[in-house]
Amino acid sequence: MTLEEFYVKTDNANKLMDRVWYCLGGSEPVSDQKVFWEHWYWKEGEKDKPMDKKKAKVGCNHTLTIAVKDDKEADYPIWPLKFTTDSYKMCPAIDLGCTIITPIGLPMTPVMFPTDDSRTEFRVDFCSLMGKKMYFIFVLDPLISAADQDKNFEILEKEHGIRKEWFNMVPWDPEYKIGSAGEPDINPK
Questions:
Q1: d(CA 136, CA 28)
Q2: For the chain, which has fewer Cβ within 10 Å, the N-terminal or C-terminal residue?
Q3: DSSP conformational letter for 77
Q4: Mean pLDDT over all residues of the chain?
Q5: Element of type H or E holding 7
Q6: Quick one: the chain helix, strand, coil %, rounded to 5?
């Protein structure tokens, strides 16, 4: 998916925002988490700004994970998100104790994005960091059916050459209740 296609499908990133994205899996080891969500929203005053080539439109990503092993909760500092007509970047926030820094912007490549807030389609992002290729799958509903997951994995492999075997899956509890881990229940129904 080109950035131009991405911005059309996401209404200039507006369909990324004011939503909670549940991580379903990643090429990184996310299977040690039983809860992994990201709340994406525009920084105040950014929502109505036009997409620009030079001046980034800024959003925020609040992430929370809960470990399988010991129920340890990790509530991460807010990661800035930066969007221009030519880029989409996530800026990892590092908490130094006395301050939080965001020294780099990771260029993200959108692979798939759900149509019209579909709860049965994947959002897949790709990033390369120091030669390491990383893929992440997010959904608007962590209890997406196995059949819908299989359909999405078929599309990933057929259209993008990305294989299901590359992913470590988050073992979501089949009884998980939206909002039970502190995330807002804001996704379009």
A1: 8
A2: C
A3: P
A4: 95
A5: helix 3-9
A6: 15, 35, 50
| 186 pLDDT tier (thresholds 50, 70, 90) | very high
Quick one: tokens of 19? 């939503």
- 129-140 pLDDT, tens digit per residue, is 888 899 999 999
pLDDT for the residue 124: 98
Rounded to 5 degrees, φ, ψ at 103 are -70, -20
Question: DSSP readout, 122-185?
Answer: -EEEEEEETTEEEEEEEES-TT--HHHHHHHHHHHHHHH---GGGPEEP---TT--TTTTS---
Q: Report the alpha-carbon distance of residue 134 to residue 30 in Å, rounded.
A: 12
Predicted pLDDT at 130: 85
Q: Are 145 and 135 in contact (CB under 8 A)?
A: no
* Token pair for 180: 């039970």
Range 109-129 average pLDDT: 96
Q: Strand, helix or coil at 117? A: helix
When pLDDT is averaged across residues 48-52 and rounded to a whole number, the result is 92
Cβ–Cβ < 8 Å for 82, 46: no
